[in-house]
Amino acid sequence: MKEYLNGENVSICIFFIGVYGLCARRNILKTIISMSLMQAAAILYFLSSSFESGSIPPIGQNLDQFKHVADPIPQALMITAVVIGVSVTAVCLTMFVSMFHKYGTTNWNKVKKKRGEID
Amino acid sequence: MTLLLYAFVIAPIFIGLLGYIFNRTFFKWLAMVMQLGFILITIALLRAPHMELMLLDIPPPFGMKLKLDEISKVFILLNNFLFFSLMLFSSKKKYMDRLFTFLFLSLQGLINGLFLSTDIFNVYILIEVATITVSILIMYKKDKQSMYDGMLYLTVNMIAMTFFLFGIGILYKTVGVLDFETIKDKIMLIDEPKYLNLSFAFLFTGVSLKAAVLPLFSWLPKAHGTASAPSIVSAVLSGIFVKIGIYLLLRIQFMYSSAIDVVPLISAIGYLTAIAGFIFAIAQTDIKLILAYHTISQVGLMLIGFGGNNINQMGGLYHVLSHGVFKSLFFIIAGVLIYRFETRKIGDMRGLWWLSKPLSVILLVAVFSITGAPFFSGGFSKYFIAYGRYNWTELFLLQLINLGTMTSFIKFILLIFKRPTHEVNFFKIRKTEFTALITLALTCVLLGTGGSFINVNLLNQDLVLSFSKQISKLPSYLLSYSFCFIIYFTLIKNNALLKKLRKVELSFNSINIAIVSFFIFTIAYLNMN
């Protein structure tokens, strides 16, 4: 059982918990939370998939003398992904706030209904 | 010379930024000169060999590069041409303030970067940034409707891109590189293609949503047909932005081609998308929504092309070009019409011929192009999408799609030739607007009439359709159109079922369920083969 409990499997579970939140919850805030959850799962997957126990961080010089040096690419990419994720969440929240001022509800279906009445 | 590739990405953003800081109209004109320069450079480079620019000292697969190859040339040309015409069209509009211009030009640079990049993670980042820019542009007027449209667009597209990111993660674990070409080489070495199924399904789901194929298109009409966004935003979205999905679909399919064969799946999705698109389009009465649903239908047609033989694929690529031009033309005409008639209902607009003859002619050019008339761009590309198909089902479905497209554009013909009921204050179009409209309309005709010349001499594609052959298609075109008129007036007009269909709209949760179902279906399909 223990061997299945690794970062990759956990991240796939977290990803689909996020997907469940998107499919089953109507609250817009919960949608944004679910999106962040999925984003975090992708980051966890990237980092844990290239993890090797005993490897040293790829920082500094003369790394050739070490046997196991961690792959620097996923780490570099994930810093970017974290920044992107944060900005996306920020933009979503900002839009949500201004949408809430216009529609006065946090429910997707109610917003959709009110939007339909305008047409 | 290769530094030009930098300029394609950086220059629009830089000029936009300068324009934002100094707030002078000079920069708007500078941007247009730059765009014109880009168009000429791309045309000059069309026949040249590949161009590459290393972004780091380390060569790929670990470094990054920009590359201009056969496919990206077509997309880059289309992108810069559309942005040039649309900037020209709206150069004197009120909404074209410094922030809007900055966002608009940044979008151009980002899209150029997307088509030039050969690194799948860079593509992800560029799409994310472009999506945020687009959603701000959709909400630009900040009214009630556009808030919902922009929010829906942003969230749904971000969810799709998270699928894409997860796919990149799994792919990186399998092959260890991120460069398109190296991934393709490494995939060839993998013995067991089943290892690739999961990553492919994730990437395919993300990209299919971007391309708006059958179950995943419900966000598109909201975003492209939104009431409050300026019509040039809709034109950019339908003209080039939705093509990003198709471009990536091509890239991904090419990358995995040695291990996974999804060409039949793409073809089948194409047929379904095209048919669903025109059925929804016929049901609509809102001019922008008709056009938005038609984008879906035409995307389906492109996928049908890519799912066929070699000539069909070239036809599909050419259809990307022609659809970009005529759909942008449609959207900006729709913007003018909505402004002048003060309504979005196409039934309430009438008598354009008596109000403005030049605009009527331009609108007719667009209608002829989209319905596939000979000598117009759509006719040329649709001929090659259908070329060499002898299977009865395929021929029947293609004919059905063609007739559906014709039928849904009858409303535009009626808009021109129905007598006006009341006086409308028409029609002084600004010179810049008119130049942009004429440029796009002439390009539609040029892409059709000079299609053979452009394909053979510029695009290096062996597509030749002789003059006599084009003329011989004319009677069948006219006959089909008369048949469509009969169908329209007997079956479609005032059809109660279509009125119900007009109101069909997926909720946010249903859209997500559609995404998950599409993902599961893709995995099941891959595992069956």
Write the layout of secondary structure elements.
The complex is a heterodimer of chains A (119) and B (529).
Chain A (H helix, E strand, L loop, with lengths): L6 H18 L3 H22 L22 H32 L4 H11 L1
Helix pairs in contact in A: 1-2, 2-3
Chain B lengths: L3 H19 L2 H21 L5 E4 L10 E4 L1 H21 L7 H19 L3 H19 L5 H32 L4 H10 L7 H15 L7 H6 L6 H26 L6 H21 L3 H20 L3 H32 L10 H4 L1 H15 L5 H9 L6 H17 L1 H8 L13 H19 L1 H8 L8 H26 L3 H7 L5 H21 L1
Antiparallel strand pairs in B: 1-2
Membrane topology (chain B): Multi-pass membrane protein
Subcellular location (chain B): Cell membrane; Membrane
Main location (chain B): membrane
CATH class of chain A: Mainly Alpha
Poorly predicted segments of chain A: none
**How many domains make up the coordinates of chain A?**
1
Helix-strand sequence of chain A: HHHH
Radius of gyration of chain A from the CA trace? 20 Å
Radius of gyration of chain B, in angstroms, nearest whole number: 22 Å
Runs of chain B with pLDDT <50, length 5+? none
Membrane topology (chain B): Multi-pass membrane protein
Pfam family, one (chain B): Proton_antipo_M
Keywords (chain B): Cell membrane, Membrane, Oxidoreductase, Transmembrane, Transmembrane helix
Subcellular location (chain B): Cell membrane; Membrane
What does this structure look like?
Chain B: Residues 117-401 form the NADH:quinone oxidoreductase/Mrp antiporter transmembrane domain. Chain B: Keywords: Cell membrane, Membrane, Oxidoreductase, Transmembrane, Transmembrane helix. Chain B: It comes from Fusibacter bizertensis. Chain B: It is found in: Cell membrane; Membrane. Chain B: Its main location: membrane. The complex is a heterodimer of chains A (119) and B (529). Chain A contains four helices and no strands. Chain A has 119 residues and is mainly α. In chain A, α1 packs antiparallel against α2 and α2 runs antiparallel to α3 (72-103). Chain A is elongated, with a radius of gyration of 20 Å. Chain B has 529 residues and is mainly α. Chain B contains 23 helices and two strands. Chain B has helices spanning 4-22, 25-45, 70-90, 98-116, 120-138, 144-175, 180-189, 197-211, 219-224, 231-256, 263-283, 287-306, 310-341, 352-355, 357-371, 377-385, 392-408, 410-417, 431-449, 451-458, 467-492, 496-502, 508-528, and strands at residues 51-54, 65-68. Chain B has a two-stranded antiparallel ribbon with strand order 1-2.
